[in-house]
Amino acid sequence: FAAEGPVFCSGHDLKELSNEDDVKHHSQVFELCAEVMTLIQKLPVPVIAKVNGLATAAGCQLVASCDIAVASEKSQFATPGVNIGLFCSTPAVALGRSLPRKVALEMLFTGEPLSAHEALMHGLVIKVVPKDKLEVETMKISQKICESSKSVLALGKATFYRQITQDLDTAYKMTTKVMVDNLTLRDGQEGIEAFIQKRKPVWSH
């Protein structure tokens, strides 16, 4: 995900959330947003946010929902809804799963933004670079990911998000089975054979 201009994503259009529209409309707006956020994690490919600018409210939620996020030095991240009487409860779902609890709660309670470097320090983004290097650095990550097997990545991504909500014993039981299943994939065996033979693997995609 990327954007043009000084704002990465400012979230919902508040005009859509006034009393001119009814509760049904408001429910549809938030349900659609939640569907988009959950679909990102259900996609079989990694999703990268390339952030250059301000990401607020649902825009900050979007960054937190992506698998990986890279930001320019000028980027900022905020959930300022509390300041206009609309607590960022749905963004809190993604933020609470991406940031330490107290950092997420400070953002939610105060509406104050995190700088790009603070976001890096707390794990919301994985890299902060000058604006003119953002495209190159994001594409480096993307290209490295694309060197791997698509089927193995899809299996790994789905498994990661399943295990993260489980207790330790359940997570290990589930991922142990997935490792065995991974070995049955053509690309699983191809990768092992290529490693043993000291050559590059030839993936099925």
UniProtKB/TrEMBL annotation:
It is found in: Mitochondrion. It holds the Pfam family ECH_1. The keyword Transmembrane does not apply. One of its GO terms (cellular component) is mitochondrion. SUPFAM superfamilies: ClpP/crotonase. GO terms for biological process: fatty acid metabolic process. Keywords: Fatty acid metabolism, Lipid metabolism, Mitochondrion, Transit peptide. GO terms for molecular function: hydro-lyase activity. Gene3D superfamilies: 2-enoyl-CoA Hydratase, Chain A, domain 1, Lyase 2-enoyl-coa Hydratase, Chain A, domain 2. PANTHER family: ENOYL-COA HYDRATASE DOMAIN-CONTAINING PROTEIN 3, MITOCHONDRIAL, PTHR43602. May play a role in fatty acid biosynthesis and insulin sensitivity. Belongs to the enoyl-CoA hydratase/isomerase family. This is Enoyl-CoA hydratase domain-containing protein 3, mitochondrial. It comes from Drymodes brunneopygia.
